[in-house]
Amino acid sequence: MPEVFLGLNIEVWKYASMPFLSAIVGYVTNVVAIKMMFHPITFWGVWEPWLGWQGIVPRKAAKMASISVDTITEKLITEEEIFSRMDPQRVAEELRAPMLSMVEEITDSVMLQHQPTIWRNLPEPVRRTIVRRIQKDAPEVVEEIMQDVRQNIREMFDLKDMVVANLVRNKPLINRIFLETGHAEFKFIARSGLYFGFLFGCVQMGVWVLYKGWWLLPAFGLLVGWATNWLALKMIFNPKELVRVGPLRVQGLFHKRQYEVARDYGNLVADEIVTPGNILEAILKGPYSDRIVTLIDGHVQRAIDEQTGYAKPFVTMTVGNARYNDIKQTAVAQVVAHMPETFRHVTSYAEEAMQIKSTLVTRLQGLNSIEFEGMLRPAFEEDEWILITVGAALGFAVGWFQLVVLFGDEFAAAFGG
Q1: CA pair distance 303, 310, nearest whole angstrom
Q2: Using an 8 Å Cβ cutoff, are 376 and 11 in contact?
Q3: 140-152 mean pLDDT
Q4: Residue 51's beta-bridge partner residues?
Q5: Range of the domain at 300
Q6: Most buried by CB count within 10 Å: which residue of 57, 206, 303, 361?
Q7: Cα separation, 34 vs 384, whole angstroms
Q8: 5: which strand partners?
Q9: 31 or 113, higher pLDDT
């Protein structure tokens, strides 16, 4: 007697399970594919890159970042535009208080280092007069430096290099960009595996009723694993423009959500990457940092020479030309060293003036479909064949499981045991 479960022949249950198993295969393979895109952050395995795995996005962080940043630097905002919005006079005013404190500290430090006896023996009122005279011109020097930076920004700051360097250094951040920007798309990929898998399973069940070739179940498993990933990716990005099919309005999910994606992407980039703090750090420590140091060097040395004025011949005669130049170089070095801390006082104004967030969001929302797709598509396109192949392999394995465990008689008939 055939076994019965809940009033139905066990064979009926085997057939009925096929769409549900197929749905599970579709869902699991799509979820695994998404996880493999982003994890692990660092290589996990025994022989890099052959025996093990690293998430596609972290593994190709430099290339992914470069592709993404092309959209920012070529279509959205430039170095010149960022700095053209900064008023040098306002910057000098914002920095007045911290500059006065810095000048006093540097003057005292430099003089104690190079001429401790003379500096200590000067009456306090004289020392205060010297410090105040230097302080008086400090804002003007800052304003002149800012004017020069604005006029020669391409020679001192590389926006693309800054963005790529930050993303490569912080691989979890580049994951966040894709995951947070495309959160709805990734949910769709996972769920679509469930839906498409169930539909394929119904077809599989119908074919299995008519024809029980041993190869059918592994072949359908492979097809489900491959097709659910492939279809999901296609439906996210296609069609790019809104298409009417009878009463239906069809458009790729990513393009349909352009305003929402633009908001999320612009906010994240402005809050985490293209920030006033990161821009300042890139100027002072980036590939062109020597040029900003040279610029500051020229302005500070000129300011010192102007401060000594008519007393310069007496000063050089007293301490010597070499020592006088050493004093100026020490002052320059200390000014540069204090710059990151001092300029933190201007970040609030810089954020307000640069308007990076609103600019990015507005212009992202105005991109055409091809340009907009270039933001996220590379993450899928670069190695999507791997994801589809993994899905197919998992589906193929489950197909064999169905054949061996659920339909063991067919397996035995085909392979003799």
Answers
A1: 13
A2: no
A3: 79
A4: 47
A5: 4-415
A6: 57
A7: 10
A8: 8
A9: 31
Ramachandran sector of residue 350 (left: φ over 0; alpha: ψ -120 to 50; beta: rest): alpha
62: helix, strand or coil: helix
Helix (H, G, I), strand (E, B) or coil at 196: helix
What percentage of the chain's residues is helix, strand, coil (to nearest 5)?
Answer: 80, 5, 15
Tell me the three state secondary structure of residue 245. strand
The residue-averaged pLDDT of 65-93 equals 80
Q: What is the DSSP letter of 4?
A: E
- Say what angle helices 10-38 and 384-401 make with each other, to 10 degrees: 160
What is the residue whose two structure tokens read 């990015």? 360
Measured CA to CA, the distance from residue 61 to residue 308 in angstroms comes to 52
> What is residue 9's three-state secondary structure?
strand
pLDDT at 8 over 60: no
Backbone angles phi, psi at 395, to 5 degrees: -65, -40
As for how many domains the chain has, the answer is 1
Structure tokens at 318: 């007293």
Q: Which pLDDT score is estimated for 322?
A: 64
Query: What are 100-119's pLDDT values in tens digits?
Result: 777 777 777 777 777 777 66
